[in-house]
Amino acid sequence: MTFDLTILAPHIPFLVKGAVLTAEACVLALAGSLCIGTIVAALVTSASPVLSRIAYIYVDLFRNIPFIVQLFFFFYGLPEIGIYVNAFATGVIALSIAGGAFTSDVIRSGILSIDPGILEAAEVSGLSKPTIFRKIVMPIALRTSVRPLGSVFINLILTSSILSTITLNELTGSAKIVASDTFRPFEIYAVLLVAYASLTYLVSLAIGALHRYLNRDQTEAA
After folding, report:
1. Cα 201 from Cα 219, distance rounded (Å)
2. Which GO terms describe its cellular component (predicted)?
3. Residues 154, 30, 23: CA angle, nearest 5 degrees
């Protein structure tokens, strides 16, 4: 069998559309997981044992259930009780909730790594706890957590390929359709491998650049 990429030519617009759908889902899921993760991390590190316990249960629950099971529950299970959501929205919600569990752990580690002396100084200066959390704790925690948060984002990109199982024609779903139409799965999936590898590599480079930019003052001091 010869390796022939010319068979892809008629299907490029369809594959590009799938890639755009993947990008949209991942960007929205990243924003959702950041919001959820920040809230959960705040609850986990709060002084309230009840809120902290609820947050821990959420993290343990969604970190220990396969993503495909969560996805099927949202897409196939919820309609049984009258909750209907389209495939794209379901995918974004499922990725956000699952990603939020991992994001919260990263942000929580960033919060716990903050020098207690900084917080004590902020309290002595008369700042309220919400202000301290918003203007001091979160900026420092997010700055120190850029790299691990980047790993979570990359994992979201890779996990998004599972959305094809709920009839969403994102990049992987589009590739499956083209492979079945052309009967040339080798070429199609070879291109898919390169596409995902390239995408995650570019994201990794961007995260590295962002980390260096946010921590440039420490680098210059060193």
Report:
1. 24
2. ATP-binding cassette (ABC) transporter complex
3. 70
CA distance 88 to 66: 19
- CATH topology for 5-215 is MetI-like fold (1.10.3720)
Amino acid identity of residue 67, one-letter, is F
Q: Three-state SS for 21?
A: helix
Q: How far apart are CA 147 and CA 198, in angstroms?
A: 18
Give the pLDDT confidence of 37-62 residue by residue, as tens digits: 999 999 998 888 999 999 999 999 99
Q: Could you read off the pLDDT of 183-222 as tens digits, one per residue?
A: 889 999 999 999 999 989 999 999 989 888 887 766 554 4
Nearest in space to 26 (alpha carbons), one of 165, 132, 150:
150
- Tokens representing 69 are 């099971």
Residue pointed to by tokens 């580690």: 109
Contact status, residue 43 vs residue 63, Cβ threshold 8 Å = no
| Separation between Cα atoms, residue 103 and residue 59, nearest integer Å | 10
- Give Dmax (Cα) for the chain: 74
Dist CA 37 CA 166 (whole Å) = 25
* Cα 222 to Cα 219: distance, rounded to the nearest angstrom: 5
The structure tokens 């900026």 sit at 139
pTM: 0.89
Which residues have C-beta within 8 Å of that of residue 178, sequence separation ≥ 6?
Answer: 8, 11, 14, 15, 188
Q: Are 63 and 102 in contact (CB under 8 A)?
A: yes
